[in-house]
Amino acid sequence: MNSPPLTLSRSNAGGPALRGAVASWPAVKVLGCAIALLVAALVALPLASLARFALAGDAALWPHLAAYVLPVAAVQTALLLVGVATITAIAGAGTAWLVTTFQFPGRDTMLWLLPLPLAIPTYIAAYVYVDILDPAGPLQTALRGLFGWRVGADYWFPPIRSLGGAIFVFGFVLYPYVYLAARAMFQTQGAIFADAARTLGARPWRLMRDITFPMARPALAVGIALALLETLNDIGASEYLGVQTLTLSIFTTWLNRGSLAGAAQIALVMLALVAGLIAIERYGRRRQSYQLSAQDGRIATRITLKGGIAWLATLACLTPVVLGFFIPAGFLLRETILRGLLTGFDPELLRHTATTVALAACATAVVLLLGLAAAIPPRLVRLPFVRACAAVASMGYAIPGTVLALGLLSPLVAIDEAINWLSELMTGSQVGLVLAGSSAALVVAYAVRFQSIAIGFVQAGLARVSTEFDDVARLLGAGPLTLVRSVHLPLLRPALWGAALLVFVDCLKELPMTLLLRPLNVETLSTYIYQFATRGSFEEGALAALLIVAAGILPLIRIVRLAETTPGGPSAR
Amino acid sequence: MFNSISVGVRIAAALAATTIAGAAFAQSGEVNVYTYRETKLIQPLFDAFSKDTGIKVNTISASSGLEQRIKSEGEHSPADVLLTVDIGRLEDAIRAGISQPIVSPVLDKLVAPQYRDPEGHWYAISMRARVIYASKERVKQTAITYDELADPKWKGKICIRSGQHIYNNALFAAYIAKHGEAKAEAWLRGLKANLAQNPSGGDRETARDVAAGKCDLGLGNTYYWALMINGGPAQKPWAEATRVILPTFEGGGTHVNVSGVVLARHAPNKANAMKLIEWLAGEQAQHMYADINYEYPMRAGVAVNLTIAGYGALKPDPLPLAKIADNKKKAADLVDKVGFDN
Fold this sequence. Notes:
The complex is a heterodimer. Chain A has two domains: 54-316, Orthogonal Bundle (MetI-like fold), CATH 1.10.3720; 339-568, Orthogonal Bundle (MetI-like fold), CATH 1.10.3720.10. In chain A, 73% of the residues lie in helices and 1% in strands. Chain A has 24 helices and two strands. Chain A has a two-stranded parallel ribbon with strand order 1-2. The two termini of chain A are 20 Å apart. By secondary structure, chain B is of the alpha/beta class. Chain B folds into two domains: 27-127 and 258-303, 3-Layer(aba) Sandwich (D-Maltodextrin-Binding Protein, domain 2), CATH 3.40.190; 128-255 and 312-337, 3-Layer(aba) Sandwich (D-Maltodextrin-Binding Protein, domain 2). Chain B has helices spanning 5-23, 39-53, 66-73, 87-95, 105-110, 166-179, 181-194, 203-212, 222-229, 236-240, 270-280, 283-291, 306-309, 321-326, 328-337; strands at residues 30-35, 56-61, 81-84, 99-100, 122-135, 158-159, 217-221, 242-245, 256-264, 296-297. The longest helix of chain B has 19 residues, at 5-23. Mean pLDDT of chain B is 90; it is low at 1-5 and 17-24. Chains A and B meet through α3, α11, α12, α15 and α18 of A and α1, α2, β2, α3 and α4 of B.
């Protein structure tokens, strides 16, 4: 254990020391199982209610889908996902690697700027880019004015409303998922590998290829998976940009074919595919361990870049921020001013902002707790059942929001029925829909959907915490609570902050579930914007969109500061 | 964010307040409306209603799934009234079993039989038509049929949003109901062959594309064009570059769709709901539908907005709207079959 191996080692997880630890904690076993089961049930209930919808119908839909829909939708969806994975991986992991490895002009500012596109809802970015790049947009109009061209006849311009356009929009808005996951991992990668490799004469890019990236694979996988699921679940932007995705066929089947059963069937098949892909990725790295040594606490010093290369690094980091944030946000700002949305300020917006922030904050707290509750038991109790529970608990993200909301309705109302039955019994009167008709429904919905973010981040974080820590803590007489509180939680801090930020901002932006499940008279900023968007004038909602951005930036700044000043080295505490 | 207990307490209190409020929506002097119309758009009507009657209107607006929500909520559902924007949605609501008959001699007199359910489960309260935005510069003809859109002379000259969007779904379903599936398939193939680009965007983008010269004809709803021409300086030029033509089916009229109203089966405030429903068909509300939303009022004697009147006299196709709802699935399947959106 004195010198961690430079190459990836076989895992020592589940080694003798830990097995012994678990055996002597029978209460932990029971408790761990119970907690894991409870958290999984939260997601399993809506899934079960979707399964009930699916089983209520027959399979008549599938020959039609197989003949006319799937051949195109499967290819388009696959291309979209590959494209988005490529852009988010390069822009997200690449920039995270640059700011971690090098010192260059503006590097410290980049730490704040790089996550910013998170605050831009995808469909807003799609609207903005269509506005700018469409034939009637300012760019093409200017080109035509300048050269006397005519549309279609004299020049070719890449169409934004296309598969390529969708890849561009999704890629540059969603790359922060990968950036944050990668940054949290790179930050906790100790210096020892870097030092050893440098001593052996490895250049930075070699270090990146052979050590930094392979070691961050669990985190990269989580980040890319989140970005892809976000892409897969989108409905507004894909339809608007004219991409035929599998998700769109769910909605067509539900709304136009009048078959909720068919829609639920497609959604569940997609869920199975997604679960399969994630399982394959995990299987691919089953023999590898990504653990940090317990003794390597230093952070590798950054290499100072000079001259042209340094400015190239600045440019590389600035590009995704400009495309994913400054252009959309700038457009919104311009519309806000041009349309006099500030002078004619809608006072209702203040109330909507407060609602949005309160809901997001509440949901984030719940999600983090649930994420820990789902991800930590598998570490302490190494039973397949507990691992399966954590897997189920992270499935909410793989179901399109509206469909998930439909699945949530029945379980929520069932609980309300029980409450009414009890209340009738005790007080003789009924209380109505306590859960389904209130904001609590939204918090539950957000929790179900975004839990996987917290679980993913915590799991990726834990994968990098050596079981040596557990063993040592155990030898020193620490109980399971002490182990989690004094060892795991401090080491998980960067991952937790990253997850908190993502969940909070995701809740701020969330649209489909909020639309369907919110109580009477409650609007969030997203639903407020949506009213204008469906009317073909999303610019009227520009100020509300900026408020989402603002509400996202404040915690972002705080969390980036906390994450960046948290001692990166695992043994710093 | 989490280290301030007082913030947490305040948030919890706020949420508790909405929770309690959620349970207290079944009160006198209120009516609860689930609406597919955007709240912002319909709020002026509700404000006027509240001023008239003293009844407070609580709303929730969504784009899909409201009938499913009401169905799941069951007998505790606070929903009194469901407002929808598509005939298919109205029929969906009836099929979901969430409605009850609206018994109103007043409405029977105001709304023509074509625009209400024979059993009174829904009544239309406003109407829109699916029309052509034609380039003023490049299109000379002033009348057109829907059939003509498949004529090869328009090859590469037509723009349209997704064939699966409810506006187009209803139009295609109407075509099937009128001419049969085989003819509809040929028509859709012809229309697809004439498209300048893959279906995408919304009706507003369609107008933009015509204005920019990407295509000569676009399909859109009547009120989008009115919103643009009366809108800000950015969108006005798009409408100005185009002209609205009211197309017709061969041997028929223009395809119209309705926004309608449903009385929820377990409506806790039924009396107030009936007041609201009848009020929406009243003179003041119908004027507001015409002038704020740029829709065709259902009530005879209420004038359409001047912009809409400028399109010419609307001759709605006589096809019973229920037939459109019946053919929705066939239309969706055909759109897939001919690869309309691909």
